[in-house]
Amino acid sequence: MSRQIDFIDVTLRDGHQCLWSTRMTTAMMMPILSRIDRSGYSYINILGGAVFDVCVRFLQENPWQRIKLLSERLETPTDGLTRGQSLYTFELFPDDIVTLNAHRLAANGIKMLTIYDALNDNRNLESSARAGREAGLKINAWMVYTLSPAHTDAYYQARTKELLTLGADHIGVKDATGLLTPDRARTLFPAVKQAAGATPIQLHSHCQSGLSTEVYAEAMKAGFQYFQTASRPLANGASLPATEDIAAAADALGLQTTLAKDELAEIAGYFTWLARREGKPIGKVAKYDPALYEHQIPGGMISNLKSQLAAMQMEHRLPEIMEEAARVRADLGYPIVVSPFAQYIVTQAVLNVVQGERYKTIPNEVRKYATGYYGRIAAPLAPEFLERANLKATELVTGRPSDNIDPWLPRLRKELGPRVDDDNILLHAFYNLELLAPLKRTLPNYREKTSPLIELVSYLESRRDIERGRVRFAGTEISFGNA
Fold it and tell me: 58, 79, 177, 225: which one has the fewest Cβ atoms less than 10 Å from its Cβ?
């Protein structure tokens, strides 16, 4: 009997995070939940740092209510992702906040806690892993992939062994920028598999290089068990591979899956229709871009940088800045180009180019990174940077970063009083009162798990001016538009 591989759906989290700027609302998710539930995924990822943050800052939704609602409606176990000691923002939080957060995720229905640290300093995962186990959660511990002289196969084997000592139930390889290639996968994946032993391994790799399907196939050959994918309309581009494509790759290799292809088609139909209704893009397969392997900057950040430079009438300097960003990253000991370090690298590169002098100005966040405030740096800092930064010995952090942060809960409980529950205490730890005020609205009366066909027909009847199109939905081919 052939080996079975399993899938984790990221449509409700990373899919819209990458393609729709994390703007999918809970109301948009609710009608299709029953279909996703029946499609054969092992886990459904519904939470990440950006999802939690955008819920509060832009959608004005209570993220705890979304977590609870989706977890109640889905029979498939839900997965929640946090950024280690930073949780949902870029700030480092004390251990008592991290611990309470893990317990509240479990209380609101999350079954698997996925954790990672942007520097692969796994000391920053200790409190999350410990609290998650105490709360009865499975622990999926990730390490972030990048390219540099320091990030060798041996480096990732060592990180894998560290994650095992945290009691990880799953190990994950996170390739946030889509830098993996089939050639590198043929050495890296067997090395990680050897270090992980019997612990199942997940792959989470984005599609910016256009090579993700081949990379996923190499992971299957190496013995990885879990693969994170998205429904086709919210896959590819800066997102993850389409579930349908990776399932086809598994079929070609003679591997078994539990996926229900009819349900996947219905889900894709729904999100195609939703994208049209909301004016959102549908993911397209990216072309191979060798420049990606030099600067390693995610596509969304490049787009933002272009618009900011255009506003200053400096868009012609983008090539200089991209080249300088690669130099800055090397000077800073090759930080992985994910948030917040991607922002720090680009900011420093812009300053170096615009001011015409390297490191004339060093932002406070870059200085804090250089002191070890966020965690252990992978390689030595460049002498040129150190000379200009002039770091003092008293600034250097050598121990576990969060050991220097006092507990917050005693102060918060005293300030907020006994009537404020733990979910709201955490919201007050993360955000100011102005951002939290809109979250006090009454939760909409969402319908129970049923096919959204009736709602779709009602919508089409009320919107005669929608662009002409056709989707397969609820077992029926439905046309819509200016007929």
Answer: 58
Alpha carbons 483 and 469: distance in angstroms, whole number? 10
- The CB-based long-range contact list for 386-389 (8 Å cut-off, 24+ gap) reads 388/358, 388/359, 388/360, 388/362, 389/359, 389/362
Helix, strand, coil abundance in the chain, percent, nearest 5: 50, 10, 35
Q: Check whether the bond before 401 is cis (ω within 30° of 0).
A: no
pLDDT tens digits, 400-436: 999 989 999 999 999 999 999 999 999 999 999 999 9
What are the beta bridge partners of residue 144? 174
Give the DSSP H or E segment for 24.
none
Structure tokens at 179: 């830098």
Nearest to 321 by CA among 292, 350, 300: 350
pTM of the entire structure? 0.89
d(CA 163, CA 168) in angstroms, rounded, equals 6
Residues 6+ apart with CB under 8 A from 336: 118, 119, 120, 144, 146, 176
Q: Could you count the other beta carbons within 10 Å of the beta carbon of residue 190? A: 15
Give the H/E segment covering residue 171.
strand 170-175
β pairing state of 476-480 and 469-473: antiparallel
Helix (H, G, I), strand (E, B) or coil at 208: coil
Between the alpha carbon of residue 383 and those of residues 227, 324, 346, the distances in Å are 41, 17, 20
Which of 29, 8, 22 has the alpha carbon at shortest distance from 52?
22
Question: Which residues of the chain are under the pLDDT cut of 70?
Answer: 1, 299-300, 303-304, 442-483
Only one residue has tokens 């990048």, namely: 146
Taking residue 390's Cβ as centre, other Cβ atoms within 10 Å add up to 9
Q: Please tell me the number of Cα atoms within 13 Å of 21 on its side-chain side.
A: 11
